[in-house]
Amino acid sequence: MSYRLDPALPVSEALRSVALAELDIAHTSLAAPPDRHKGVHSARKCFKRLRSLLVLARPGMPDPLYVNLNRRVARIGKGLAAARDAHALFDALNVLERNTEPGLGDGPIDAMRGWLRRRRKEAERNLEQSSASQSLEMLLELRPRFASLVVYPDDFTPISKGLEVSYCCARQQFKSAFRSKNPEVLHDWRKGVQRHWRQMQLLTPCWPSELSARAEAARGLSQTLGDDHDIANLMHLATAPTMTFGSPDDISDFLKRCKIRMKALRKDAKIRGQRLFVEKPQPFAGRIHAYWTTTAIGVLKPVEPARQEDNVVAIDDARSDVMSHLNYGGQN
After folding, report:
1. Where in the sequence is the domain holding 277, given as residue range(s)?
2. Would you tell me how many other CB atoms lie within 10 Å of the CB of residue 165?
3. Which among 87, 110, 210, 300 has the fewest CB atoms less than 10 Å away?
Protein backbone atom coordinates (compact mmCIF):
# COMPACT_ATOMS: atom_id res chain seq x y z
CA MET A 1 0.00 0.00 0.00
CA SER A 2 1.36 3.47 -0.89
CA TYR A 3 0.06 5.16 2.28
CA ARG A 4 3.25 4.55 4.28
CA LEU A 5 6.07 6.91 5.20
CA ASP A 6 9.45 5.48 4.20
CA PRO A 7 12.00 5.61 7.07
CA ALA A 8 14.85 5.50 4.52
CA LEU A 9 13.86 8.92 3.11
CA PRO A 10 14.13 12.41 4.58
CA VAL A 11 10.79 13.14 6.23
CA SER A 12 9.78 15.89 3.77
CA GLU A 13 10.47 13.63 0.81
CA ALA A 14 8.54 10.77 2.41
CA LEU A 15 5.55 13.07 3.02
CA ARG A 16 5.59 14.36 -0.56
CA SER A 17 5.81 10.85 -1.97
CA VAL A 18 2.73 9.70 -0.04
CA ALA A 19 0.73 12.86 -0.76
CA LEU A 20 1.37 12.75 -4.51
CA ALA A 21 0.47 9.05 -4.64
CA GLU A 22 -2.87 9.83 -2.94
CA LEU A 23 -3.58 12.62 -5.43
CA ASP A 24 -2.89 10.20 -8.28
CA ILE A 25 -5.28 7.62 -6.84
CA ALA A 26 -7.99 10.26 -6.36
CA HIS A 27 -7.54 11.52 -9.91
CA THR A 28 -7.76 8.01 -11.37
CA SER A 29 -10.80 7.22 -9.24
CA LEU A 30 -12.71 10.26 -10.47
CA ALA A 31 -11.51 10.39 -14.08
CA ALA A 32 -12.99 7.25 -15.60
CA PRO A 33 -14.10 4.70 -13.02
CA PRO A 34 -16.19 1.71 -14.08
CA ASP A 35 -18.44 2.43 -11.12
CA ARG A 36 -18.91 6.13 -10.34
CA HIS A 37 -20.02 5.49 -6.77
CA LYS A 38 -16.95 3.38 -6.02
CA GLY A 39 -14.79 6.05 -7.62
CA VAL A 40 -16.24 8.76 -5.39
CA HIS A 41 -15.80 6.59 -2.31
CA SER A 42 -12.18 5.86 -3.23
CA ALA A 43 -11.42 9.54 -3.89
CA ARG A 44 -12.99 10.69 -0.62
CA LYS A 45 -10.84 8.20 1.28
CA CYS A 46 -7.79 9.72 -0.42
CA PHE A 47 -8.81 13.20 0.76
CA LYS A 48 -9.27 11.97 4.33
CA ARG A 49 -5.84 10.35 4.22
CA LEU A 50 -4.31 13.58 2.90
CA ARG A 51 -5.86 15.59 5.73
CA SER A 52 -4.59 13.09 8.31
CA LEU A 53 -1.10 13.46 6.82
CA LEU A 54 -1.34 17.25 7.02
CA VAL A 55 -2.38 17.13 10.69
CA LEU A 56 0.64 14.92 11.40
CA ALA A 57 3.03 17.29 9.60
CA ARG A 58 1.44 20.55 10.83
CA PRO A 59 4.04 21.43 13.53
CA GLY A 60 6.73 21.54 10.83
CA MET A 61 4.71 23.70 8.39
CA PRO A 62 3.92 27.43 8.29
CA ASP A 63 0.42 27.74 9.68
CA PRO A 64 -0.99 29.62 6.64
CA LEU A 65 0.25 26.83 4.37
CA TYR A 66 -1.36 24.14 6.51
CA VAL A 67 -4.66 26.03 6.66
CA ASN A 68 -4.65 26.61 2.90
CA LEU A 69 -3.90 22.99 1.96
CA ASN A 70 -6.30 21.53 4.52
CA ARG A 71 -9.10 23.85 3.38
CA ARG A 72 -8.55 23.01 -0.29
CA VAL A 73 -8.58 19.25 0.31
CA ALA A 74 -11.69 19.54 2.49
CA ARG A 75 -13.46 21.58 -0.19
CA ILE A 76 -12.90 18.91 -2.83
CA GLY A 77 -14.20 16.20 -0.52
CA LYS A 78 -17.24 18.25 0.43
CA GLY A 79 -18.16 18.62 -3.23
CA LEU A 80 -18.46 14.84 -3.45
CA ALA A 81 -20.19 14.34 -0.10
CA ALA A 82 -23.81 14.43 -1.30
CA ALA A 83 -23.39 11.44 -3.59
CA ARG A 84 -21.58 9.39 -0.97
CA ASP A 85 -23.94 10.35 1.88
CA ALA A 86 -26.98 9.30 -0.14
CA HIS A 87 -25.48 5.83 -0.60
CA ALA A 88 -24.37 5.63 3.04
CA LEU A 89 -27.85 6.32 4.44
CA PHE A 90 -29.47 3.86 2.06
CA ASP A 91 -26.99 1.17 3.17
CA ALA A 92 -27.42 2.15 6.84
CA LEU A 93 -31.17 1.58 6.65
CA ASN A 94 -30.58 -1.92 5.32
CA VAL A 95 -28.02 -2.65 8.05
CA LEU A 96 -30.40 -1.39 10.72
CA GLU A 97 -33.13 -3.68 9.42
CA ARG A 98 -30.80 -6.70 9.51
CA ASN A 99 -29.34 -6.03 12.95
CA THR A 100 -32.47 -5.25 14.97
CA GLU A 101 -35.55 -7.23 15.91
CA PRO A 102 -38.13 -7.51 13.09
CA GLY A 103 -41.53 -5.96 13.69
CA LEU A 104 -40.39 -2.94 15.69
CA GLY A 105 -40.61 0.18 13.55
CA ASP A 106 -40.92 -1.70 10.26
CA GLY A 107 -43.61 0.68 8.96
CA PRO A 108 -41.45 3.67 7.89
CA ILE A 109 -38.56 1.58 6.49
CA ASP A 110 -39.98 0.96 3.01
CA ALA A 111 -41.07 4.58 2.64
CA MET A 112 -37.65 5.83 3.75
CA ARG A 113 -35.90 3.38 1.45
CA GLY A 114 -37.88 4.67 -1.54
CA TRP A 115 -37.10 8.31 -0.68
CA LEU A 116 -33.39 7.54 -0.22
CA ARG A 117 -33.28 5.67 -3.51
CA ARG A 118 -34.63 8.74 -5.32
CA ARG A 119 -32.22 11.01 -3.50
CA ARG A 120 -29.33 8.76 -4.43
CA LYS A 121 -30.22 8.90 -8.14
CA GLU A 122 -30.46 12.70 -8.02
CA ALA A 123 -27.07 12.96 -6.31
CA GLU A 124 -25.54 10.68 -8.94
CA ARG A 125 -26.93 12.87 -11.76
CA ASN A 126 -25.43 15.98 -10.14
CA LEU A 127 -22.14 14.15 -9.78
CA GLU A 128 -22.03 13.26 -13.46
CA GLN A 129 -22.97 16.78 -14.56
CA SER A 130 -20.61 18.90 -12.50
CA SER A 131 -19.16 17.64 -9.21
CA ALA A 132 -16.66 15.14 -10.61
CA SER A 133 -15.23 17.51 -13.25
CA GLN A 134 -14.90 20.36 -10.74
CA SER A 135 -13.10 18.04 -8.33
CA LEU A 136 -10.66 16.97 -11.05
CA GLU A 137 -9.84 20.61 -11.84
CA MET A 138 -9.17 21.37 -8.18
CA LEU A 139 -6.97 18.27 -7.88
CA LEU A 140 -4.74 19.49 -10.71
CA GLU A 141 -4.37 22.87 -8.99
CA LEU A 142 -3.47 21.17 -5.72
CA ARG A 143 -0.69 18.94 -7.01
CA PRO A 144 2.11 21.58 -7.31
CA ARG A 145 1.49 22.67 -3.72
CA PHE A 146 1.99 19.16 -2.38
CA ALA A 147 4.96 18.63 -4.70
CA SER A 148 6.80 21.43 -2.87
CA LEU A 149 5.78 20.39 0.66
CA VAL A 150 8.62 20.74 3.20
CA VAL A 151 8.66 20.38 6.98
CA TYR A 152 11.22 21.97 9.31
CA PRO A 153 13.25 20.53 10.84
CA ASP A 154 13.40 17.81 8.20
CA ASP A 155 13.36 14.93 10.67
CA PHE A 156 10.81 13.09 12.81
CA THR A 157 10.53 15.87 15.43
CA PRO A 158 7.54 17.73 13.89
CA ILE A 159 5.84 14.40 13.09
CA SER A 160 6.23 13.30 16.70
CA LYS A 161 4.71 16.58 17.91
CA GLY A 162 1.87 16.33 15.38
CA LEU A 163 1.16 12.78 16.54
CA GLU A 164 1.10 13.84 20.18
CA VAL A 165 -1.33 16.72 19.53
CA SER A 166 -3.60 14.61 17.33
CA TYR A 167 -3.64 11.68 19.76
CA CYS A 168 -4.30 14.02 22.70
CA CYS A 169 -7.23 15.59 20.83
CA ALA A 170 -8.77 12.18 20.04
CA ARG A 171 -8.29 11.10 23.66
CA GLN A 172 -10.07 14.22 24.96
CA GLN A 173 -12.87 13.76 22.40
CA PHE A 174 -13.34 10.21 23.69
CA LYS A 175 -13.91 11.52 27.22
CA SER A 176 -16.29 14.23 26.01
CA ALA A 177 -18.25 11.83 23.78
CA PHE A 178 -19.60 9.84 26.71
CA ARG A 179 -20.28 12.85 28.90
CA SER A 180 -22.51 14.45 26.25
CA LYS A 181 -25.74 13.19 24.72
CA ASN A 182 -25.14 15.23 21.56
CA PRO A 183 -24.48 12.85 18.64
CA GLU A 184 -22.27 15.49 16.98
CA VAL A 185 -19.78 15.22 19.85
CA LEU A 186 -19.52 11.51 19.17
CA HIS A 187 -19.12 12.28 15.47
CA ASP A 188 -16.23 14.64 16.26
CA TRP A 189 -14.56 11.79 18.14
CA ARG A 190 -15.04 9.59 15.10
CA LYS A 191 -13.06 12.10 13.02
CA GLY A 192 -10.26 11.94 15.61
CA VAL A 193 -10.31 8.15 15.52
CA GLN A 194 -10.13 8.19 11.72
CA ARG A 195 -7.10 10.47 11.86
CA HIS A 196 -5.42 8.16 14.36
CA TRP A 197 -6.17 5.12 12.19
CA ARG A 198 -4.58 6.72 9.14
CA GLN A 199 -1.62 8.10 11.05
CA MET A 200 -0.88 4.62 12.36
CA GLN A 201 -0.95 3.42 8.75
CA LEU A 202 1.55 6.11 7.82
CA LEU A 203 3.90 5.15 10.65
CA THR A 204 3.49 1.37 10.44
CA PRO A 205 6.99 0.80 8.92
CA CYS A 206 8.66 1.71 12.22
CA TRP A 207 7.04 -1.28 13.98
CA PRO A 208 4.69 -3.17 11.64
CA SER A 209 3.28 -5.72 14.09
CA GLU A 210 2.28 -3.18 16.74
CA LEU A 211 1.15 -0.26 14.62
CA SER A 212 -0.73 -2.31 12.05
CA ALA A 213 -2.68 -3.79 14.99
CA ARG A 214 -3.41 -0.27 16.27
CA ALA A 215 -4.47 0.83 12.79
CA GLU A 216 -6.86 -2.11 12.52
CA ALA A 217 -8.28 -1.45 16.00
CA ALA A 218 -8.86 2.23 15.14
CA ARG A 219 -10.43 1.25 11.81
CA GLY A 220 -12.90 -1.04 13.60
CA LEU A 221 -13.76 1.66 16.13
CA SER A 222 -14.25 4.18 13.31
CA GLN A 223 -16.68 1.80 11.61
CA THR A 224 -18.69 1.40 14.83
CA LEU A 225 -18.86 5.17 15.29
CA GLY A 226 -19.80 5.57 11.63
CA ASP A 227 -22.71 3.17 12.07
CA ASP A 228 -23.83 5.19 15.09
CA HIS A 229 -23.67 8.44 13.10
CA ASP A 230 -25.68 6.92 10.25
CA ILE A 231 -28.41 5.88 12.68
CA ALA A 232 -28.48 9.39 14.17
CA ASN A 233 -28.98 10.75 10.64
CA LEU A 234 -31.79 8.26 10.00
CA MET A 235 -33.51 9.39 13.21
CA HIS A 236 -33.15 13.01 12.11
CA LEU A 237 -34.62 12.18 8.71
CA ALA A 238 -37.54 10.25 10.21
CA THR A 239 -38.53 13.20 12.43
CA ALA A 240 -37.96 16.01 9.91
CA PRO A 241 -41.08 18.25 9.82
CA THR A 242 -41.19 18.18 6.03
CA MET A 243 -41.12 14.37 5.83
CA THR A 244 -43.91 11.85 6.31
CA PHE A 245 -42.79 8.24 6.44
CA GLY A 246 -45.63 6.87 8.57
CA SER A 247 -48.00 7.54 11.43
CA PRO A 248 -46.71 9.04 14.71
CA ASP A 249 -46.83 5.56 16.26
CA ASP A 250 -44.85 4.12 13.35
CA ILE A 251 -42.19 6.79 13.72
CA SER A 252 -42.06 6.29 17.48
CA ASP A 253 -41.46 2.55 17.04
CA PHE A 254 -38.81 3.24 14.42
CA LEU A 255 -36.97 5.59 16.80
CA LYS A 256 -37.06 2.92 19.52
CA ARG A 257 -35.51 0.49 17.06
CA CYS A 258 -32.76 3.00 16.28
CA LYS A 259 -32.04 3.65 19.96
CA ILE A 260 -31.69 -0.06 20.73
CA ARG A 261 -29.10 -0.43 17.98
CA MET A 262 -27.36 2.79 18.99
CA LYS A 263 -27.05 1.66 22.60
CA ALA A 264 -25.28 -1.54 21.54
CA LEU A 265 -22.93 0.37 19.23
CA ARG A 266 -21.97 2.91 21.88
CA LYS A 267 -21.28 0.22 24.46
CA ASP A 268 -18.93 -1.44 21.99
CA ALA A 269 -17.31 1.89 21.06
CA LYS A 270 -16.61 2.75 24.69
CA ILE A 271 -14.81 -0.53 25.32
CA ARG A 272 -12.76 -0.14 22.14
CA GLY A 273 -11.93 3.48 22.96
CA GLN A 274 -10.77 2.69 26.49
CA ARG A 275 -8.32 0.15 25.10
CA LEU A 276 -7.08 2.30 22.23
CA PHE A 277 -6.56 5.53 24.19
CA VAL A 278 -5.37 4.19 27.54
CA GLU A 279 -1.83 5.59 27.16
CA LYS A 280 -1.10 9.27 27.84
CA PRO A 281 -0.15 11.42 24.82
CA GLN A 282 3.45 12.33 25.63
CA PRO A 283 4.71 8.80 26.41
CA PHE A 284 2.81 7.45 23.42
CA ALA A 285 4.34 9.92 20.95
CA GLY A 286 7.77 9.50 22.54
CA ARG A 287 7.63 5.75 22.11
CA ILE A 288 6.70 6.05 18.42
CA HIS A 289 9.50 8.59 17.96
CA ALA A 290 11.97 6.08 19.41
CA TYR A 291 10.64 3.34 17.14
CA TRP A 292 11.02 5.56 14.08
CA THR A 293 14.54 6.75 14.95
CA THR A 294 15.73 3.21 15.56
CA THR A 295 14.18 1.95 12.35
CA ALA A 296 15.59 4.82 10.29
CA ILE A 297 19.10 4.10 11.57
CA GLY A 298 18.67 0.42 10.78
CA VAL A 299 17.46 1.17 7.26
CA LEU A 300 20.34 3.52 6.55
CA LYS A 301 22.96 1.16 8.05
CA PRO A 302 21.92 -2.41 7.22
CA VAL A 303 23.48 -5.21 9.22
CA GLU A 304 26.02 -7.25 7.26
CA PRO A 305 24.84 -10.84 6.71
CA ALA A 306 26.73 -13.37 8.76
CA ARG A 307 29.42 -15.36 6.96
CA GLN A 308 29.02 -19.13 6.77
CA GLU A 309 32.06 -19.79 8.99
CA ASP A 310 30.60 -17.42 11.61
CA ASN A 311 27.39 -19.45 11.59
CA VAL A 312 29.37 -22.66 12.12
CA VAL A 313 31.22 -21.16 15.09
CA ALA A 314 27.97 -19.87 16.57
CA ILE A 315 26.35 -23.31 16.25
CA ASP A 316 29.36 -25.00 17.87
CA ASP A 317 29.31 -22.49 20.73
CA ALA A 318 25.60 -23.02 21.24
CA ARG A 319 26.05 -26.82 21.24
CA SER A 320 28.81 -26.51 23.84
CA ASP A 321 26.62 -24.33 26.05
CA VAL A 322 23.78 -26.85 25.91
CA MET A 323 26.08 -29.78 26.77
CA SER A 324 27.59 -27.86 29.66
CA HIS A 325 24.13 -27.09 30.98
CA LEU A 326 23.09 -30.74 30.75
CA ASN A 327 26.24 -31.92 32.49
CA TYR A 328 25.77 -29.36 35.23
CA GLY A 329 22.17 -30.40 35.65
CA GLY A 330 23.24 -34.07 35.94
CA GLN A 331 25.59 -33.28 38.83
CA ASN A 332 22.63 -31.99 40.84
Report:
1. 11-301
2. 16
3. 300
